[in-house]
Amino acid sequence: MNEEATQKTENKAAAPAGDRQDARNHRGGDRGRRSRRVRRPRVRSEFDNKILGIRRVTRVVAGGRRFSFSVTMVIGNGKGQVGVGLGKASDTALAIEKATRDAKKNLITVPLTPDASLPHETQAKYDASEVLLIPTPGKGFKAGSAVRTVLEMAGVKHVSAKILSRSKNPLNNAQATIAALKSLRPIAGKTQKGAPTGEKGKGAKNAADKKESK
């Protein structure tokens, strides 16, 4: 027995490394031939998101109570696009996913000025919430509550916002802000310094020339 064991040990030591590797692969079956799975790099979305609030909703049914979650989400790219969404599900993660999809469906484009302000003053109402937005070029950002979140996601940097109502509902305040941003209209022929350009500027210049000639 000792001589046989010694002979096997010597044969194993004398075997080439390639033969030993083939033997291990043969013993392992498919495990030796299985290729490693290559992970694809995760593509980051261009939109940032922020949760305004998560509420637990209770529904009374015949068998008792059923609990679900309601999530209010704001997404934006900081370059003029912003949206507000609402998602409801029995799981928090699923509710967040639904809210994100709903926000993407409701995206709007805000006509920002070259200095990241609003083209003019605007005011809007949604349910019990009412919001006033005043452009303040060069004076910074003054806003609070859900209004601040929506404006930051849209990329507005110089504005003063005021909630005229007593509503504390973040969803209604956010929707009122969206309604106010929807009503904005870009001012044609305005440069960063506010000088008139384009066809409107040419018309004003021609009118002034005609007046002087008279």
Question: How would you summarize this macromolecular structure in one to three sentences?
Answer:
With 214 residues, this protein is an alpha+beta fold. The chain is built from seven helices and eight strands; from the N terminus they run αααβββαββββαβαα. 38% of the residues lie in helices and 27% in strands.
What would you note in describing this structure?
There is one protein chain. The strands form two sheets. The chain has a four-stranded antiparallel β-sheet. A four-stranded mixed β-sheet has the order 5-6-8-7. Helix 5 crosses helix 6 (170-182). With 214 residues, it is of the alpha+beta class. Helix content is 38%, strand content 27%. Among the domains are: 48-108, Double Stranded RNA Binding Domain, CATH 3.30.160.20; 110-182, Ribosomal Protein S5, domain 2. It has helices at residues 2-14, 17-28, 30-33, 92-105, 145-154, 170-182, 198-213, and strands spanning 48-61, 64-76, 81-89, 108-109, 122-126, 129-135, 141-142, 159-163.
Describe the protein's topology:
Blueprint: H1 2-14, H2 17-28, H3 30-33, E1 48-61, E2 64-76, E3 81-89, H4 92-105, E4 108-109, E5 122-126, E6 129-135, E7 141-142, H5 145-154, E8 159-163, H6 170-182, H7 198-213
Parallel strand pairs: 7-8
Antiparallel strand pairs: 1-2, 2-3, 3-4, 5-6, 6-8
